[in-house]
Amino acid sequence: MAKTIAVMQPYVFPYLGYYQLVNAVETFVFFDDVNFIMKGWINRNQILQNNEPFKFSIPLTKASQNKLINELMIADYPAWRSEFLKKIEQGYKKAPHFEKIYTWLCSFFSIGYTHIGELAIESIQQISILLSIPTTFQRASSIDYDRVTAQTGQQKILNICGRLSASSYINPINGMDLYEPTGFSEKGVSLAFIKMDAVQYQQFGEREFLPHLSIIDVLMFNGLDQTKLLLKKYSLITNTP
After folding, report:
1. What is the C-alpha separation between 96 and 226, in angstroms, rounded?
2. Over the stretch 90-121, which tens digit does the pLDDT of each residue have?
3. How many CB atoms lie within 10 A of CB 149?
4. Model pTM greater than 0.90?
5. Long-range pairs of 15-18 with CB within 8 A, sequence gap ≥ 24
C-alpha cells in the first residue's frame, strides 16, 4: 500500500531536484494523461555547450496543448538523437565522468523511442535505477481514478491519492501556491513540499556555477556516488491548514 506519493508530469532528464522528489517518496506517479504544455520541460532541458547553458528541444509531430502528453510523437528521432549525442560529446568530453556517462547515454538512446511521454518517463526511471533509487513508479493513465469530473488539478491529485491509499503527498516547493491544504487534510492526506538545498559542484574552470541544468550535467561532473549523496540535499516543508 502506497503511503507517501508524488505526482508529476514526466520531463526529459530533469534537474537534480526532480530526482530528489522521486527519492523522497515510496510511489512516484507520472502525470502522463494531462495536456501537453508548450514550451515547458516535457521535451526540453538544459545542458552545457561551450561552457554556457544550452536549451535543447526534442522535436514533436503536431505538438499541441490540446493533446495529452502520452499521445505526442517524436519527429525524426534518429536525426535528433545523433545531433544530441554530438552536443553531449562536444559539451562534456573534458568532464571527469564523461566516458562512463556518455557510454550509458548512447545505450539509452539506442532504443527507438516514438513518443515523448515514453522517452521522458524512461529517462527518469533509468536514471533512478542508475542511482539505486528504490521508488516504485506508476503512470496516471494506468490508474483507475476519477479524471472526468475532477474540476481542478488538486482534485485529480486527491483522487489518485485515494486510489493508491496514500497518507502523504509531496510536491516541489514552487507548487506551494497551487494547493489548498484543507482539501488534503479533509481526505486524511498530509501535504509537504520539497526544497532543494543550494547545491553547487565544480563545473569547468573557475566560472560561476550554473544551477538547475539537466541531471546529465550533475552526473558528468559528480559521477554516481557523489550524485547519490546530492539526492539527500533537501528539506521538507509541511503545509498544514
Report:
1. 12
2. 999 999 999 999 999 999 999 999 999 999 99
3. 7
4. yes
5. 15/45, 15/212, 15/213, 15/214, 15/215, 15/218, 16/196, 16/199, 16/215, 16/218, 16/227, 16/230, 16/231, 17/172, 17/194, 17/196, 17/212, 17/234, 18/124, 18/172, 18/215
